[in-house]
């Protein structure tokens, strides 16, 4: 293609396009051959045919072949438009305006040169196979501004991957903090439950003791009442006194319960547990703020 003024790169591009067009042409010729073969296999099964039958077969074959050829011509025209689109798009990126001379498309001399070049380029299947094994050329639109744009896209993708990895790390840290918080809360609940069971046991013992005292007093009262009616008033006074003592003891028990709870809140275990919960809540709030910051950046 030196007579056309192409450099080596453009010559390879032309060869690639000619190889593509040649493969499409061979495929379409095979399709047309199959149309004739189908006619032979399906209709030419008798020894003699009338003029009308032959005319009908030829007309049917003509319609099929015409459709195949028309489809290929339309597809070739559209393919050429896509090729021009690539070239024009590349030129417009560099503010170039390409021009075409339609009359040169019917230049017989140039067409014959192209035909001779195609024959020389694809004269043997071995050479065509060798050409097909060549490494693919880079797309037309690679280079210049496009190459810089691709580099910037790659850099942004790498940065995005780093941010995603950082986000996953923060999510794992937040999940770990939440799990640790749940464990601490569970431990605190278990401790409070144990304390509550102990206090309930003490309350039950005190109540049982008071119930026993009241029962004894009632028994004594009944005995005294049976023994002497004269001491009934004293027994009643004793009973009232015992009831007052019971109320006083209950008040003391309530105060003791409050005092015990107050002492428990002043213990080192309770304060440590409370400080751990406070720190974990602050860590979780900080991690959530950082997550919201990274999500807004993305």
UniProtKB/TrEMBL annotation:
Residues 146-180, 239-297 form a coiled coil. It is found in: Cytoplasm. Keywords: Coiled coil, Cytoplasm. Residues 122-145 are annotated as: Disordered. Pfam families: Leu_zip. GO terms for biological process: negative regulation of protein localization to cilium. Belongs to the LZTFL1 family. Regulates ciliary localization of the BBSome complex. Together with the BBSome complex, controls SMO ciliary trafficking and contributes to the sonic hedgehog (SHH) pathway regulation. May play a role in neurite outgrowth. May have tumor suppressor function. This is Leucine zipper transcription factor-like protein 1.
